[in-house]
Amino acid sequence: MAWFKRSQEKISTDTPKKDITDGTWIKCDECGEMIHHLQWGSNDYICQKCGFHFRIGSKEYFELLLDEDTFKEMDKNMHSTDPLNFTDSKPYKKRIVDIEKNTKLNDAVRTGTGKINSLDVVFCCMDFQFIGGSMGSVVGEKIARAIDRSIKTRYPLIIISSSGGARMMEGAISLMQLAKTSSRLAKLAEEKIPYISILTNPTTGGASASYSMLGDINIAEPNALIGFAGPRVIKQATGKDLPKGFQRSEFVQEHGFVDLILNRKDLKDKLTQLLKLLSN
After folding, report:
1. Chain-centre distance of CA 170, in angstroms?
2. pTM for the structure as a whole
3. 15/84 Cα distance (integer angstroms)
4. SS3 for 34?
5. C or N: which end of the chain has fewer Cβ atoms within 10 Å?
6. What would the DSSP string read from start to end of 208-229?
7. If phi over 0 gives left and psi between -120 and 50 gives alpha, with beta otherwise, what is residue 245?
8. CB 154 within 8 A of CB 193
9. Do residues 231 and 247 touch, judged by C-beta distance below 8 A?
10. From CA 182, how far away is CA 175, in angstroms rounded?
11. Measured between alpha carbons, how far is residue 157 from residues 123, 225, 240, 253, 274 in Å?
12. What does CATH list as the number for 56-279?
């Protein structure tokens, strides 16, 4: 039974009706607000109530930051192998096959070239959903090749990090990627080509011990977890309570490891400003 009837037909309103299809609702991890997925996407995957920045993948960052249809992916078909025949809860080979099928990704980073407000860049973005954004041989090699492309084209380099650290399934091979990427970035610096690092939630372990913290400018999203070992591990090792907000963006900036904290909505405009400044 209807609660009310219109007394007049064809009543017009100033604002056009927006069709919102039935779909998924997302709950904010910070404040518990329920957000319709269409509203969530249109707000750059940020909670409208508390400003919490949801974790997103490379596809979403490409859409938010790069000019439409300008991204050209590099080394798309590189896949991890299993040099150690590693098995934990399942064989590493099977884990790779399963995660590729579930995520439609070939590894934890996508690299290529694109434009930000018509400015050419080499752009790398990690995906946490691929084994926690862990650094394996493919991640290190793709980032190294992206740096080489930046040197060759002299396009500024941007890397968006989202990582839990080195990929233990590849042992020492994964740790070698820290030296590989760091040495390439040293060469980039010698060539005086700008590098902007963007740290998202989380940026930890091997990523934070190498390329993530080596930017000419390090930018963080609000309240992102940034550090080497996690706070739980540090607390266990030291036996002491940690300061409030320990290893969050604001704490890290206060202690000099991050230059800027930017709302995701402001990121493209600020990158444009920085790229023009650094290029000149």
Report:
1. 22
2. 0.89
3. 62
4. strand
5. N
6. HTTGGG--SEEEE-TT-BB-SS
7. left
8. yes
9. yes
10. 12
11. 6, 23, 39, 22, 12
12. 3.90.226.10
Tokens for 51? 């400003």
Nearest to 197 by CA among 210, 186, 184, 187: 210
In the chain, where the domains are located = 23-54, 56-279
**Helix-then-strand count for the chain, H and E:** 9, 9
Would you write out the chain's pLDDT as a tens digit for each of its 280 residues?
444 444 555 444 444 443 434 468 999 999 999 999 999 999 999 999 999 999 999 999 999 999 999 999 999 999 999 999 999 999 999 999 999 999 999 999 999 999 999 999 999 999 999 999 999 999 999 999 999 999 999 999 999 999 999 999 999 999 999 999 999 999 999 999 999 999 999 999 999 999 999 999 999 999 999 999 888 889 888 988 889 889 999 999 999 999 999 999 999 999 999 999 998 7
Q: Which of 246, 215, 211, 1 is nearest to 109 (CA)?
A: 211
